[in-house]
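[READ THE FOLD]
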Amino acid sequence: MQTVYILIGPKGSGKSHIGRLMESRLGIPFLLTEDIFLQFQKQGLETQDVYKAGFPETANTIERLLKTKDALAFESTGASPLFFELLESLRLQFDVKLIAVSASARVCLTRIRSRDAGVHMPADDALIEKVHRISSGLALDYDLVIRNENLRESEIVALLQSVTAAEQERGAISSYGGEQHS
């Protein structure tokens, strides 16, 4: 059975960075789902319609990619009720591993303000704080929790390896064999 790793955390917590590490260091393809939602937002859809279109498209993309892959990672804030529909649908088809990615509201806001706003869903400070509150308060049974403040990349990879060990053992994914960059 294929494995889906879902990185769940507030905006600015480092989900995309960790997803890219999963891909480059562990060989687990990473789907940046924010790109899917941005496509609908750029079409001029209202915010609620962006999410109504984005979640089914995310599910379709995951299903399509897993026809040729053993594992896949993607990110979500988990702040939309539609996320839980996606989660339940994925659990019926795949082995789902939940990875919480957290950082303080201050750290998240600092990261958000310093990044390229053009490649992220638009959000003002009030929305960012609301999403942070919702995402940080999710009561899910996580397979791994990463407090993403002041961790080196090698430390993050070591944490990820603890939850990806089964896939590594059966050869579905490979560990990064090069130099660990911090």
